[in-house]
Request: fold
Amino acid sequence: MASTSSGRQADARDRDDEGRARNARDQDDDRRARDARDQDDDGRARDARDRDEEGRARNARPRDGLGRPLPYGSEGVARQPEGVVRTPRETVTEAQDLLDAGRPFHAHEVFEDAWKSGPEEERGLWRGLAQLAVGLTHAARGNVTGGARLLRRGAGAVTEWAASGAGLQRPYEMDLAGLAQWARALAEEVERTAAPVDARTRRPRLRG
Reply:
């Protein structure tokens, strides 16, 4: 009987040891899973948010000329500073310079600043222009569906704004009718060819 009892006690100790070992393995697995969740694809801590010089959260991952993210450490194209307050004419001039350089993604950020900081009655105008720039960005990236959709959406937005009581046909010397025509024609081309367009050669002329 004593031998049998000792054997049962030994078996119980072995089971306890196995249980502790299993718990330790489970805890290690849980820790590795948490570590994986807390890191991005480049091994950077997810809660270590990138911030700009003023401390605002902003992804510092480098991007190419069309705004596509590149691996950390790559040499990208400088982003536009956020929250810059410009006069409307400064906005148009800077955005055109960026479009001329084949950087519609960056032009969209300039329009977005005007949309967020400008008067309420002009927000529809700048939002529509931002959509046109994003539409060209997607078309240049080869995103047929997104490019055509945003080009048409932007065309509709600037046309609607021009037809509204607050709208003008040529605000700040911009040719909204011509921009809408350009956007709809480019949307049709993108859908027909299903090929990326050259952002520089297919850029719009904001002032006609």
